[in-house]
């Protein structure tokens, strides 16, 4: 049997197993096997093929896997939807009390309530979003823009 066919079969097998494990390591090894199949196809001796496989595997695992892990971690921490509004600040359009109010957050007008029911945030002040529940933003005032009720 031709060496390039053995390496290609190994690459295919590792690729299929990677689809089920999703670790990334087997995919890197499959890529190294595919690269080695190319080396076998151009006629390199068996010892050189193993050297190509070892070098490609080590480089792939050392260089590519940490990049993939970092990318996966960054994507998981990305916030979207209303969760992305937490921490944003905006002007108070209508005085915010425990009974209601309006603020502009990220260009949109939101119903607002103070995070602390004892606070009143006057119109024109800046408020920061601490939590969103349904269509209501629970806000806390910026420095010097609040009074106790």
TrEMBL record:
Membrane topology classification: Multi-pass membrane protein
Keywords assigned by UniProt, alphabetized: Hydrolase, Membrane, Protease, Transmembrane, Transmembrane helix
A Pfam family: NfeD
InterPro entries: Membrane_assoc_protease, NA-bd_OB-fold, NfeD-like_C
SUPFAM superfamilies given in the database record: NfeD domain-like
Membrane-traversing stretches: 12-36, 42-64
Residues in NfeD-like C-terminal domain copies: 82-141
GO biological process, one term: proteolysis
Subcellular localization(s) per the UniProt record: Membrane
GO cellular component annotations of the record: plasma membrane
MF-aspect GO terms: peptidase activity
PANTHER family found in the cross-reference section: INNER MEMBRANE PROTEIN YBBJ (PTHR33507)
Name of the protein in its database record: Membrane protein implicated in regulation of membrane protease activity
Native source species: Saccharothrix algeriensis
């Amino acid at each position: 049997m031709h060496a390039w066919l053995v390496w290609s079969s190994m690459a295919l097998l590792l690729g299929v197993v990677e689809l089920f494990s999703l670790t990334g390591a087997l995919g890197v090894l499959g890529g190294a096997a595919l690269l080695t199949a190319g080396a076998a196809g151009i006629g390199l001796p068996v010892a050189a093929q193993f050297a190509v496989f070892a070098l490609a595997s080590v480089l792939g695992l050392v260089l590519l896997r940490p990049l993939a892990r970092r990318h996966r971690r960054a994507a998981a921490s990305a916030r979207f939807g209303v969760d992305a509004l937490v921490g944003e600040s905006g002007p108070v359009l209508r005085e915010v009390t425990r009974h209601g109010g309006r603020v502009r957050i990220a260009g949109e007008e939101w119903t607002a309530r103070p995070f602390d029911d004892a606070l009143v945030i006057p119109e024109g002040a800046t408020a920061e979003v601490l939590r969103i529940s349904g269509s209501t933003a629970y806000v806390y005032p910026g420095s010097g823009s609040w009074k106790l009720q």
